[in-house]
Amino acid sequence: MNDLALLLTPEGRALLDEVRDTDPARELAVATRLRREHPAELVSAALGQARLRQRAAVKFGAEDAGRMFFTPNGVEQSTRASVAAYRARRMADSGVTSVADLCCGIGGDAIALARAGIRVLAVDRDPLAAAAARANADALGLAGLIEVREADVTEVDTAGYDAVFVDPARRGGRGRIFDPEAYSPPLSWAVSAARRAPHAALKIAPGIPHEAVPEDAEAEWISDGGDVKEAVLWFGTEPGAVRATLLPGPRTLLSRALPDPPVRPPGRYLYEPDGAVIRAHLVAEVADQVDGGLLDATIAYVTADAPHPTPYATAYEITDHLPFNVKKLKALLRERHVGTLTVKKRGSAVEPEELRKKVKPQGPNAATVFLTRVAGAPAMLIGHPA
Fold first, then answer.
1. What is the mean pLDDT of residues 338-358?
2. Residue 49, class by beta-carbon neighbours within 10 Å (0-12 exposed, 13-18 middle, 19+ buried)?
3. Which strands make up the sheet holding 242-247, listed edge to edge?
4. Other C-beta atoms within 10 Å of 73: how many?
């Protein structure tokens, strides 16, 4: 709290501007110089905040991150700005004009909601997080739309708000928490809070079991740039719906409750579904789009005989299909003069780096090898992006 208070002073803000682009390798020299003119505590706080802002640029963009205030947990746990903006647009498009943002952290989601024109009550029981959220609303010119309150979210009256957004803490002293009832607050409490509002969105870990999704919720898995970022339980939308949304876009694939695709021999093309599609259990929908089947009943690789462009999977043209054999792979790569080898695996215990060391790829050409199973048998499929 003291660090943040120091940084919000005119001297602190000026010092933050001065150390903005400090190279971590030069921090000691910079700190030594600045301590001749500024209190040591302020210098340490400014350099620490500069490091956090540099880390946060990946999530928030350099412009916003350069003006915001972060805590270490805030950088780690905040929603990526593109994902928060997508959720905020969904709420705004549903007619939501006010949201109670519970467990707001440093205010990343509140900022996205406010930028969508939504009035926000942002609540967190952590005094430092609440102070950072307040400072960020002010720094980004959104204080008129965001009210920050330091309080226990379980004691906040959300009546009068169009929607509730809950982002429970999913990290404890020992790292990630996988049991939804061990979230803080527990998922059961968040679901109860959601059901009391006309609309609601609960941010949860993408690994949540499908059987833990309430029947009256819509479940959405979201990826950004191919990386799965989160799952969201929506209330007041389409109960029972399951979807995968890919950013940028957005592109959304909705479940049609298709049966599992058939297992078939490898075709000319292999499709690697996006992680959000896999988490949402929508591989069958992709297989249907590309007129394909599975290489193995337990593995999410789709194979087809012809190219069928789809935004929900990356396509590869397969040139070789071999039983798993390192010596044969090494010989084939040498014959093709492959020096750049991308190793992908699913259903294989072999580590990519271990394989690269053994085959020692050399040459001007590139290839991708898939280590997987075909109808239960270890196999290698070699090819390139289609």
1. 94
2. buried
3. 146-150, 119-124, 98-102, 163-166, 199-204, 227-235, 218-224, 242-247, 251-254
4. 15
pLDDT, tens digit, for every residue of 263-291? 999 999 999 999 999 999 999 999 999 99
Which residue is listed with tokens 């001749």?
36
**Residue located via tokens 């990290």:** 171
Mean pLDDT for 69-84 is: 93
Which helix (H) or strand (E) covers residue 229, if one does?
A: strand 227-235
Asked whether residue 175 carries a pLDDT value surpassing 80, the answer given is: no
Rounded distance, CA 204 to CA 213, Å? 10
Between CA 127 and CA 172 the distance in angstroms is 18
User: Average pLDDT of the chain?
Assistant: 94
352 preceded by cis ω (within 30°)?
no
> DSSP secondary-structure letter at 258?
P
pTM: 0.91
In the structure encoding, which two tokens stand for residue 361, read together?
């790829």
Length of the chain equals 386
pLDDT surpassing 80 at residue 2? no
- Where would I find the H helices in the chain? 2-7, 10-19, 27-34, 40-60, 62-65, 72-77, 81-93, 108-115, 127-139, 187-195, 275-279, 283-289, 326-336, 352-359
Tokens of residue 269, six digits: 């093309």
Is the sign of the CA dihedral 133, 138, 141, 145 positive or negative? Answer: positive
Identify the bridge partners of residue 366 per DSSP, sorted by sequence position.
340
Whole-number Å distance between alpha carbons of 127 and 130: 5
Which pLDDT score, from 0 to 100, does residue 173 have?
Answer: 56
DSSP letters along 300-355, please? Answer: EEEEESS----TTEEEEEEEEEEES-HHHHHHHHHHHTEEEEEEEESS----HHHH
The pLDDT of 54-81, averaged and rounded, is 94
Backbone angles phi, psi at 91, to 5 degrees: -65, -45
